[in-house]
Structure formats: C-alpha cells, structure tokens
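Per-record layout

source: Nocardiopsis flavescens
name: DUF1266 domain-containing protein
length: 319
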Amino acid sequence: MLTVAAGVFGALVIGAWVVVAWGSGRRRPWLLTPVALLVVVLVALAPGWAFLPAAALAAGSFVELVLGSRESPALRTRDADAPLSTERWAAAAAAPFRVALAEPWDVVARPTLRRQYRRLLERQWDVTDRESLLAAIERQMDGLHREPSLDLVVDLAAGVARSRLPREQGGHSTGEQVRLTPEQVGRLRMVTGVAEGDETVIIGAYQWWKSVHVIRLVCGGATLDWLSPVESQTTLRRVASDLQRRYSSWQQLSMAFHAGYLLWPEKGVEGDHGGTDRVWAALGLLTEDTRSPWNLLPWDMPLERVLPETGGQEQETHR
C-alpha cells in the first residue's frame, strides 16, 4: 500500500515538474532532474523515503512557477544558429523586453507568456481581441510616420536630457526632460561613443525606437493566436524596413532605444521590478555582450517578401 501511495504521489509530482520545466523554457528547472530520478529509485527500493525528494521536487516546481519570471535579465535564444530571416531580425530589434524577462529573444510566439501578453496588451494599448490589436498596430505605425523627427540633447555634465525638434525645423524644445543618474550618464557615454571631454551629445530621430512596440504587439498577437503567421511576418517586414531606412546600424538603434526609453512614461510600470529597471539592464546586455544579436546580426540584411497566397517567402532586397 505504501509503495502504491508513494508511486502515485511521485508520478503526480514528476508530471507537474515536467510540465512546469517544459513550459518555462528555462534551463534552471531541469537541474532538478536528479531529484526526479531519486524519486523513481526510492519508490522501487524504499517507498517511505520517496516522499522526501518528491516533496522537494514539488517545492522546486512551485518556486519556478511562481518566481521563474523574476529571474535576472539574461541573454537567451531558442536557436543561436538559426538562419537569418526578417522575423529573427525584427525580434532582435525588440529583444530588450524579452531579455528583461530572461526569455528567448528570438521567439515571436511564446505560449508561456500568454497571460502576461494579455495583461500587457490591455493595460498599455487597450487591446482585448484581434480587431483592437489590428487597430493598435495601425495607430502605432501611422503615428510614427506622422510625428516630427525629434532629437534628444544630452547634457552629460549636468546629467539632463531634453527632447527638441531638429535645428533645421527650429530646434524648439518639446518640454520633455529627464534627469539622469550617474549610471545613465555613463551608459549614454558608452553607447554614443562620445569622447571623454565632450559634455553634450545629440541622439537624432530617437522616436523611431517606438517601432519596437509594433513588434511587441505582433508578438502578443501571434502568441494569443490573433495573428496568422503571414500577418505577423508582413507587419514585421514593414517595421524592419522602416528601421533599416532610418538608422544605419545596431549602434544607432541602441542609441535611439536608450534615449526613447529614458523618456518613456510606461517604463516605471513595466521596467521596474524589485527596485531594478530590468529593461534598462537588458539594454546594457544587448549593447555590450558579444553574444548579443545587436553585435552579431548584420544590420542591412535583405528582407524577405511575404507571399500572402501561399504563406511562403522569397528573398528580396528592399533597397
């Protein structure tokens, strides 16, 4: 009787652990594999003792389920050797938000993030279904093309950044301003490559960093099955094409991303976690880590043309 009870309990716990580990997509829960094997061995040899490792396995699975998403930002991929594609390139552009969650940056549809995407889409864009998602994507795209180009003027000595129109358009301030911490000043020096003696740096056309929000909307729609693969790829190609026309390198995108993120009103809601701005930390990883897609993928790669009739793709240089 004890053997049966230990076997049933062990089987349930191991099954729950496999589901949690597989669904998380992280390496850490699989480190409990020896504990699961110990449960199996003890059920056969000493069923009374099998309850102890089974309880430990259940506790580990619960911790991963509850706290796994709070893991420190980490640079992870599903397939580091995957071939170049428009989808992979666009995912790299919005990678900071996935790296902030220690989730693979190169996965567009991520089933384990369904609940999080549902909350995010509703809170930030009032998106609750396919129709409102498509409307939000078009609003974002139209807004980017209608808004005037803006510069971010960073006074490194005073630790202040302010947004303004380019000089050829009058150079008037927009009123948006943010005070920088010493760490943020140091990061901007590093990202822009400004000389140590220079005290002012201008980051041009920074508002186009908002294109990454369209990519996030697409990832959410694909994850929630509100967008077909062809619809997702078509929108990602539009975004990638816009970014490639307006910036000349990943470094320029990184500069714009840093500038825009500093002024983004939502960063206090989405970026902060336990007193640490996870997205800001992820931006640092993507900028500095040699394994980062921002340091590995070619910026001006040819983009793929999506064929709606078949869902297939063929290579086409968009320039």
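summary: Residues 234 and 306 are 6 Å apart (CA to CA). DSSP finds 14 helices and eight strands in the chain.
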